[in-house]
């Protein structure tokens, strides 16, 4: 028989394990009404944990501190969920990850996010990596996905990871696009239940498959909380949006990612420039991206158009997409070229309107840069005003642009 104090300790450990049965993720197990919890499993696990804490924690904690720079407090906390008897197990994991292209910094991030990774078998880890690479993922892609969500390594390959990947691919219809989704929303490989609810709801209300795929590719986080998505859909319907149209999902992405206070702040910025709420909502319906920028950027863009260019709010309302454009990367660089042409007398002022900003990159360069003898000078001015990383090559060759 166990002594009374041992029984009490085991009961406390049972409570602790029940509360934290998912490790550092602190998720309470979901038990259906027809499913009974396996108390024997928890009891036996708690007994093992007592042994682990009493005999193995010192080594696990010291290993985490010496190898990965954990503080003593965080190492002791993490070691409660990590069974290590020697260096052989964690070193085998580190060797495997290094083989697959993980840097020391990548491995450190992985372990800091979930120390239990060091206790996984190399077979469990390699099977997930091999699955992703078999679908076309590069090793850098795999590193990004797994560092972003180490829980993938914990999940069953056959029961969770493969079905989750299949769900994503069924929506976007290719491995390339499925991997693109995972690089933005790696959590979907370990838990896609809420995203599935959201996607089925969008289908139910009449959103075309191509637009559902657009949301998953462009902003998968919108699908992560189905309750929020359903509430936003109702708000958009009240505004008059049609779920079958492309601008519906654009508006959904824009509005779903903002709190009510942030939304109201942006409304107030537009109102300060003389627009009513009815006019603002009409503009939002025509060009949802006008509410995608921060309130600060909206204010700066309006100030640029009204104060610098002398365009009234009515002019801007006639071409609302410009409100969703980047001031620094698109509007100011193009304006600098136009101002140079105006100062030379090359073009007339009446030809300067919002259509300048609506042209594609090549369209703008063809019409206002490449066609002039002093194209190199104009290009140099243009590149100086915008992010050079988006137009590589500088002024070496106008033809390349």
Give structural notes.
- Pfam families: mTERF (PF02536).
- InterPro entries: MTERF, MTERF_sf.
- Keywords: Transcription, Transcription regulation, Transcription termination, Transit peptide.
- Belongs to the mTERF family.
- The chain is mainly alpha-helical.
- The protein has four domains: 36-84, no CATH class; 86-191, Alpha Horseshoe (Transcription termination factor 3, mitochondrial); 220-293, no CATH class; 325-390.
- Helices cover 65% and strands 0% of the residues.
- Helix 6 packs parallel to helix 8 and helix 10 crosses helix 11.
- The longest helix is centred in the last third of the chain and has 18 residues, at 327-344.
- The model is unreliable at 1-57 and 391-401 (pLDDT under 50).
Largest sheet at a glance?
none
Total of helices: 23
Q: At CATH's second level, what is the architecture of the largest domain?
A: Alpha Horseshoe
Radius of gyration: 28 Å
Question: Within the CATH hierarchy, at the fold level, what is the topology of the largest domain?
Answer: Transcription termination factor 3, mitochondrial
Structural class: mainly alpha
Q: What is the residue-averaged pLDDT?
A: 82
Question: How far from one another are the termini?
Answer: 82 Å
Number of domains: 4
Q: Percent range for helical residues? A: 55-70%
Keywords: Transcription, Transcription regulation, Transcription termination, Transit peptide
InterPro entries: MTERF, MTERF_sf
Family: Belongs to the mTERF family.
GO molecular function: nucleic acid binding
